[in-house]
Amino acid sequence: MSSAEPRTADPDHLWSVDEHLEDILTTVRPLEPIELQLLDAQGCVLVDDVTVPLSLPPFDNSSMDGYAVRVADVSGASEEFPAALEVVGDVAAGAAGLLRVGPGQAARIMTGAPLPPGAEAVVPVEWTDGGLGEGPVSTMRARSLAPDGVGGHVRVYRPAEARAHVRAKGSDVEAGEPALRAGTVLGPPQIALLAAIGLGTVPVRPRPRVVVMSTGSELVQPDEQLGDGQIYDSNSFALTAAARDAGAIAYRVGAVPDDADTLRSAIEDQLVRADLLVTTGGVSVGAYDVVKEALSHVGDEDEPGGGVEFRKLAMQPGKPQGFGTVGADHVPLLALPGNPVSSYVSFELFVRPVIRTLMGLRDVHRPTVRATLAADRALTSPKGRRQFLRGVHADGEVRPVGGAGSHLVAALALADALIVVPEDTESVEPGAEVEVVLLG
């Protein structure tokens, strides 16, 4: 596997969470923009402001199925004294070469159809006899029952004010107005707007491709039989799902055994489809910490400025971390610890901001709030470490779930927030105000 010279670090230096994150985000740059078809751009970030080229709607049109009329012709209309109007024809959605509504006349009109010349308002069909002469109706007579067009007369039982039930040209947005701002994530409503103003393609930053792989010879895929000393691989599933939740196109790689050459080969194979690589496990100080062994000394003197550095962070869980770049294209790689809670917390703190940075978003962090600690006893935290405890947040309060152990997956599944205990705090009493990172 080709990579640049390894990043150097004092092995005894204890990095803060903020230092590590700042170093990562200083290295990562947004992906280059590309032009995509609208549906392919879903979930991507808009590069440039979009200005509306034409008004929406582009013409006055009816908001109801009914009759296009002149206001004077239905003034004073009632069920006792209906206005009787000559029906000059149909106006359907998409109609061109519109007929004209003159004095004493009406045109049967469909929702979305352009308001014909001469008409000033639309009366809903429920205000009329539908041309049947039998009192108020609830629906129009089907076109198939009168294929040669509508004629005769219609009785209108209620008056209408000018522009009643008419969607005015430009009432949604006027030509020349901003439609979407750069930095907008394109979801279904935004794609609908782009299509409505006639844009078939749009320049965006693509969704980053994230490859997630877990390491460990003890890992077995779900649905397989566990052997002695084996556990199911949950990290790669959790982090692949988390990467997709963050906006990425994520690929999960099956667990890699504890062999440095095998891992280097697996990473090499994945570089072709990766804008970001994420590994879990093998970053501590054990004899089988394969990620650290495989990546600590990769390098190529002809490709300066990269490599992978392994660090100790002043945090719990998640003390061991790795970060750098690999391959000729210097693909960012984040190496996370293997315990499930450590891995997931590390993802939220470090990997998610990288994904959002690659997307070109301005705000890359989860929202944080202040909340009152609702607990049965004080929370304890090791001095000098920033601790992240799982919690449930609601109505201005946060309650811890599970303990501080980094293996407690069941408690993690119940949490929707992380309770932050600062480095200089060793105890937090119930009722105290704490910082909370919202995960949902």
Brief characterization of the structure:
This protein has 440 residues and is an alpha/beta fold.
Detailed description of the structure:
Strands 1-19-21-22-18-14-17 form a 7-stranded mixed sheet, sandwiched between helices. It is an alpha/beta fold. It is elongated, with a radius of gyration of 32 Å. The chain is 18% helix and 29% strand. The longest helix has 20 residues, at 340-359. The two termini are 38 Å apart.
What is the topology, as strand order, of the major beta sheet?
A: 1-19-21-22-18-14-17
| Mean pLDDT over the residues | 89
CA gyration radius, whole angstroms? 32 Å
| Distance N to C terminus | 38 Å
Rough outline? elongated
Please state roughly what percent of the residues sit in beta strands, choosing from under 5%, 5-15%, 15-25%, 25-35%, 35-45% or over 45%: 25-35%
Number of helices: 8
The low-confidence runs, each spanning 5 or more residues with pLDDT under 50, are: 1-8, 299-305
- Got a strand count? 29
Give the class from helix and strand content and strand pairing.
Answer: alpha/beta
